C-alpha cells in the first residue's frame, strides 16, 4: 500500500521537496499538502518583481492546478494545520479536518517580524511577505503619497523600489549606518545607497523607530533621537520569524527553529522539516538555495536512497532592483586568517572585493559588474585553489559579451538556486528549440527562483543562437552498433542481469554479433564493475589481460618488472642484468613511472624470462593505476623522503590489480619542491608540515592542467584511506574512458568530498576496493 505523505506548507521549500520525491519515486506515496494561504504554490521571492511592475501574480505561480492533479496531490489551500498528534499520526486543521500520515514534512516557513512599537496596528502599516501583503500595498498606494520602508536589507530595498515605481515618495529607515550590513562591506553599501538615491529613494540611516504616529491611520514615524518623518504608508521589512508554534505545542524539539539533524529529521520519528522554519546545526536559513538543498536531501532519505545528509550551505545574495548589479557570497569580513583583493572603479561605478584564505576564495562582494558571480560561487563552494592570474581576471572589469559566456565551462552553474549548469541549458535549448528565457525557465528551472540569474540566462540564450556558439550537447549512442547511450546500456545490464558480452549483444539488439573496438572494451569494463565477485570475471579483466607480458606489433614481447615505489636492490639488478645478457635483450630503458622496461623479447623466450625474473609484472599500456613518485629528488631538494616512499609502496600494493575507466597517474612527493610538476597528475600527494595535501584532476595530456586541492590528510593512514575511497568511487561512477578530471567536472568536487568525508560511505568504498584486490595479492604472473 502507498504511504500517506502529508506536507504542512504549500510554499517553495515543501513543494520543491515533493517534486524531488516524485522524481525519485512517484509510486509509493499518496501526497497531501496543507497550505494556509488561499493560493497555489508561488514564488515568494519574486513578489518584489510584482510590486515593481516587472511581473504579474500569474507569472510567479510555480505549479498550477494541473500539476497537482497530474501528480494526484490533494491540496487543502486556505487551510491551516493547528495540531500534530504524533501518537495517532494524525494532523488536525482549523477546519476540523483530520488527516492521517505515515510520513510528515513540516514546511511552515516564517512570518514577518513586526516591530513592537506603539502604533503598529494603525491603518496604512503593512508587512511584505505574502500575495495579500503585496495586494494591500498596491491598493494602499493609490491613496498614499509618502511611503516609508522600515528595514534596509534586501527585502526592504526591493520593496522601496516597487513603491517608487507606484509613484510614491519613498524613504528607507534603517537602524545602522549602512545598508545590507549582513551582506556588504561599507564601500559596496555606500555605492549602493548613492545609486538608489539617484533613482529617487531617500534614506534615514542610524534611525530607530520609537512610535508610529497618527489617529486611526498612520501619519508619520517618531524616532528615538527625537526626529520624525511624515508618512501615510509604512512597510515593515525588518526580518522574519520561523513559524514553529504548532511544532512546539505538538511536542517537537524547537529552539529558534524546528531542530533537525543532517537528514532533516525532527525529534519525533517520521516527522521531518525543511525550509525557513528549520534550525540545522544552530543555523536558520532564509534564502531559497539552502531550502532547496534541504529538500533534495530529505527527498532521497524518505525514498530510501543513499544520501550523505545536509551539511549546511554557503549563502549568496543578489538584489532584484532594476539598474543595480549586486552580488555577495560567503565571508566578506576580514580577519587575521584572510587577505583581500579589491578593485574600485568610481568612473564606471564598479567595485569588487575577494576574500582569500590561503589560495582558496572564501567570500566576495561584487557591485556594478556581476558577470563572475557564477564562477565565484563555484570556486567558493568547491573550495578550488585559485591562481593569482585567475584572481586578477575576476577583478578586471568586463563587458557582457559572447566571449565571457563562451569562456565558461559547461559544468559552471548559471542558476545557483536550482543548480542548473551552462551545459544543461545549452542541451535543453538545442534539443527542444527553446527561444525565450521563460521557456528555459519552464524546461530547466533556471531563473525560476530568485530571478537573479535572469540576465545571465538571457545572455547565454543569445550566445547559443549566435554564430559564436560551437558547443553542441546531445545524447550520443555508445557506438554505431546500438542506438542506446552509455548510461542506458549500463542500466539495461543491471536491470536484466546481463553478465556476458554475448548476453548484452543479443538481449539489447546489437547490430553486430561481436560488437566493435569501441563498445566491447567498454561493456567488458562495466561487466567487471557490476559483477566484481563473479568467479573468473575479475581474473579475466584484471590479471590475464592487464598484467603481464605485452605483445608488440613486431611480434616480440615487453615486460615491466614491478618495483614498488620505484625502489630496487642489488639482487634484483643482478638478476635483471643476467637475464638481459642471457636472452640478448637490447631494448632496455626507464619508463616515466620510474620502472625498468625490457622490450624486444622473442616469443620463444618470454615464458623463460618471466620465470627467471620471479617478480610481479606492472600493468603495461592499459587502464590501471600508474604510480609516479619523486623518490630521489634532484639537487634542488634534499628533503627526507622515507615516509613518502612508504606511502607510495602501500598505495601501489592496494591498487595495482584494479581496472580503472581511464589510465590513472598517481604522483607522490615528500615535499613541495616539485609542486608544479606534481599537481599535473590525476592524483597528487604532497607532504607538508601538517600531513599530506591531496590534489585531484590534474592532467598533462592533451594540455597541462593543475589539479584542485581535494583535502589535507593529517597522516599517511588517512591519506591512504581517502585515496583508495576516491579511486573506488571513480571506478564505480565514471564512464568508460572518462579521465578523472572530466569525471570531477561532471559530478562536482564538492559532491565527491561529501561522499569521501562521510566515514561510513568511505569505509564501504574501501572495503569494496580491498575485496577486489585481495584475491590477486601474491598471485604469480
TrEMBL record:
Domain (Nitrite/Sulfite reductase ferredoxin-like): residue spans on this chain: 552-614
Domain called BFD-like [2Fe-2S]-binding: residue spans: 413-462, 479-528
Stretches assigned to the Nitrite/sulphite reductase 4Fe-4S domain: 623-759
Pathway assigned to this chain's UniProt record: Nitrogen metabolism; nitrate reduction (assimilation)
Keyword Iron applies: yes
Domain FAD/NAD(P)-binding: 4-279
Keywords of the record: 2Fe-2S, FAD, Flavoprotein, Heme, Iron, Iron-sulfur, Metal-binding, Nitrate assimilation, Oxidoreductase
Cofactor(s) required, per the database record: siroheme; [2Fe-2S] cluster; FAD; [4Fe-4S] cluster
Pfam families for the chain: Fer2_BFD, NIR_SIR, NIR_SIR_ferr, Pyr_redox_2, Rubredoxin_C
All copies of domain NADH-rubredoxin oxidoreductase C-terminal, residue ranges: 316-383
InterPro entries linked: BFD-like_2Fe2S-bd_dom (IPR007419), BFD-like_2Fe2S-bd_dom_sf (IPR041854), FAD/NAD-bd_sf (IPR036188), FAD/NAD-binding_dom (IPR023753), FAD/NAD-linked_Rdtase_dimer_sf (IPR016156), NasD-like (IPR052034), NiRdtase/SiRdtase_haem-b_fer (IPR005117), Nit/Sulf_reduc_fer-like_dom_sf (IPR036136)
Family per similarity comment: Belongs to the nitrite and sulfite reductase 4Fe-4S domain family.
Listed PANTHER family: NITRITE REDUCTASE (NADH) LARGE SUBUNIT
NCBIfam families per record: nitri_red_nirB
Name assigned to this protein: NAD(P)/FAD-dependent oxidoreductase
Organism, as annotated: Metabacillus bambusae
Amino acid at each position: 500500500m502507498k504511504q500517506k505523505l502529508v506536507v504542512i506548507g504549500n510554499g517553495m521549500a515543501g513543494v520543491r521537496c515533493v517534486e524531488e520525491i516524485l522524481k525519485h519515486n512517484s509510486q509509493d506515496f499518496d501526497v497531501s499538502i496543507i497550505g494556509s494561504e488561499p493560493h497555489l504554490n508561488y514564488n515568494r521571492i519574486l513578489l518584489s518583481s510584482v510590486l515593481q511592475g516587472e511581473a504579474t501574480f500569474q507569472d510567479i505561480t510555480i505549479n498550477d492546478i494541473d500539476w497537482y492533479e497530474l501528480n494526484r496531490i490533494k491540496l487543502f489551500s486556505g487551510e491551516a494545520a493547528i495540531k500534530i498528534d504524533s501518537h495517532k499520526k494524525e494532523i488536525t486543521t482549523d477546519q476540523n479536518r483530520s488527516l492521517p500520515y505515515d510520513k510528515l514534512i513540516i514546511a511552515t516557513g516564517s512570518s514577518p517580524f513586526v516591530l513592537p512599537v506603539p502604533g503598529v496596528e494603525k491603518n496604512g502599516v503593512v508587512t511584505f511577505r505574502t500575495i495579500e501583503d503585496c495586494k494591500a500595498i498596491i491598493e494602499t498606494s493609490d491613496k498614499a503619497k509618502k511611503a516609508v520602508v522600515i528595514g534596509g536589507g534586501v527585502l526592504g530595498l526591493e520593496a522601496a523600489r516597487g513603491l517608487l515605481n507606484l509613484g510614491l515618495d519613498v524613504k528607507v529607515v534603517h537602524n545602522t549606518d549602512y545598508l545590507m550590513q549582513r551582506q556588504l562591506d561599507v564601500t559596496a553599501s555606500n555605492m549602493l545607497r548613492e545609486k538608489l538615491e539617484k533613482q529617487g529613494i531617500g534614506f534615514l540611516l542610524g534611525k530607530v523607530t520609537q512610535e508610529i504616529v497618527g489617529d486611526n491611520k498612520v501619519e508619520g514615524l517618531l524616532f528615538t533621537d527625537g526626529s520624525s518623518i511624515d508618512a501615510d504608508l509604512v512597510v515593515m521589512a525588518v526580518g522574519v520569524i520561523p513559524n514553529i508554534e504548532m511544532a512546539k505545542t505538538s511536542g517537537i524539539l524547537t529552539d529558534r527553529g524546528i531542530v533537525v539533524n543532517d537528514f532533516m529529521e525532527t525529534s519525533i520519528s517520521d516527522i521531518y522539516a525543511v525550509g525557513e522554519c528549520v534550525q540545522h546545526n544552530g543555523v536558520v536559513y532564509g534564502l531559497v538555495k539552502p531550502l532547496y538543498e534541504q529538500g533534495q536531501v530529505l527527498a532521497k532519505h524518505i525514498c530510501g536512497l543513499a544520501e550523505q545528509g545536509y551539511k549546511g550551505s554557503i549563502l549568496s545574495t543578489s538584489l532584484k532592483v532594476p539598474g543595480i548589479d549586486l552580488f555577495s557570497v560567503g565571508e566578506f569580513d576580514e580577519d587575521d586568517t584572510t587577505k583581500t583583493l579589491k578593485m574600485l572603479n568610481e568612473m564606471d561605478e564598479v567595485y569588487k572585493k575577494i576574500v582569500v584564505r590561503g589560495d582558496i576564495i572564501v567570500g566576495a562582494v561584487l557591485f556594478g559588474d556581476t558577470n563572475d558571480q557564477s564562477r565565484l560561487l563555484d570556486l567558493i563552494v568547491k573550495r578550488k585553489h585559485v591562481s593569482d592570474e585567475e584572481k586578477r581576471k575576476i577583478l578586471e572589469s568586463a563587458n557582457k559579451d559572447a566571449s565571457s559566456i563562451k569562456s565558461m565551462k559547461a559544468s559552471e552553474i548559471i542558476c545557483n538556486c536550482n543548480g542548473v549548469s551552462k551545459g544543461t541549458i545549452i542541451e535543453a535549448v538545442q534539443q527542444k528549440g527553446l527561444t525565450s528565457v521563460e521557456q528555459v525557465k519552464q524546461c530547466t528551472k533556471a531563473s525560476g527562483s530568485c530571478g537573479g540569474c535572469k540576465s545571465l540566462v538571457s545572455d547565454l540564450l543569445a550566445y547559443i543562437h549566435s554564430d559564436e556558439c560551437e558547443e553542441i550537447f546531445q545524447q550520443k549512442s555508445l557506438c554505431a552498433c546500438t542506438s542506446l547511450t552509455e548510461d542506458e546500456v549500463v542500466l539495461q545490464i543491471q536491470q536484466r542481469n546481463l553478465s556476458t558480452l554475448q548476453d548484452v549483444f543479443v538481449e539489447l539488439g546489437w547490430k553486430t554479433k561481436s560488437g566493435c573496438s569501441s563498445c566491447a572494451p567498454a561493456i567488458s569494463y562495466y561487466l567487471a564493475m557490476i559483477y566484481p565477485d563473479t568467479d573468473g570475471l575479475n581474473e579475466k579483466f584484471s590479471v590475464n589481460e592487464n598484467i603481464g607480458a605485452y605483445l608488440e606489433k613486431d611480434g616480440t614481447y615487453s615486460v615491466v618488472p614491478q618495483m614498488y615505489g620505484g625502489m630496487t636492490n642489488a639482487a634484483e639488478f643482478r638478476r635483471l642484468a643476467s637475464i638481459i645478457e642471457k636472452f640478448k635483450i637490447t631494448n632496455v630503458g626507464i619508463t616515466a613511472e620510474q620502472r625498468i622496461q625490457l622490450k624486444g623479447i622473442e616469443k620463444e623466450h618470454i615464458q623463460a624470462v618471466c620465470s627467471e625474473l620471479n617478480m610481479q609484472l606492472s600493468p603495461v599500456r592499459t587502464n590501471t593505476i600508474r604510480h609516479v613518485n619523486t623518490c630521489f629528488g634532484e639537487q634542488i631538494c634534499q628533503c627526507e623522503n622515507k615516509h613518502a616512499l612508504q606511502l607510495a609502496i602501500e598505495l601501489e600494493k592496494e591498487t595495482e590489480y584494479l581496472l580503472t575507466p581511464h589510465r590513472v597517474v598517481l604522483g607522490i612527493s615528500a615535499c613541495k619542491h616539485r609542486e608544479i610538476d606534481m599537481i599535473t597528475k590525476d592524483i597528487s600527494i604532497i607532504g607538508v608540515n601538517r600531513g599530506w595535501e591531496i590534489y585531484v584532476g590534474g592532467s598533462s595530456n592533451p594540455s597541462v592542467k593543475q589539479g584542485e586541492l581535494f583535502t589535507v590528510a593529517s597522516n599517511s593512514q588517512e591519506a591512504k584511506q581517502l585515496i583508495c575511497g576516491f579511486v573506488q568511487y571513480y571506478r564505480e561512477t565514471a564512464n568508460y574512458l572518462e579521465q578523472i578530471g572530466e569525471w570531477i567536472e561532471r559530478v562536482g568536487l564538492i559532491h565527491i568530498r561529501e561522499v569521501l568525508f562521510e566515514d561510513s560511505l568511505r569505509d564501504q568504498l574501501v572495503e569494496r576496493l580491498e575485496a577486489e584486490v585481495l584475491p590477486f595479492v601474491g598471485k604469480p604472473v
